[in-house]
Design brief:
With 96 residues, this protein is mostly helical. It has one domain. The chain is built from 5 helices and no strands. Bound molecules: zinc ion. Zinc ion (ZN) binds next to helix 5.
Amino acid sequence: MLLGAQRGRSGVSGVKSGPRTGEEIIVPGHNRWPEFLSRLSRARICFGNTKQARLALAAMDGVDVDGSLRELARLGGSCDCQIELDVAQSLASRGA
Ligand SMILES: [Zn+2]
């Protein structure tokens, strides 16, 4: 029963000191990156924050939501559309 555990940790940022064991950081190149992108692409409007990216990550099992958002911000994805466009594009242009 993962659902109950997942729901308990939504919306908290800057509290954890690091990823917990077994939680994945979703970044370009990760084998679950396409899964994240397809979830995020359902969001048509960017509100200038990462709320929808957060929701997309939170909907995936075993993901460190805050850690992933931190990594994505470092890659230039400081809001939903930048994650979907800029970060995804940088992956494509790198030819990885
Ligand atoms: Zn945006």
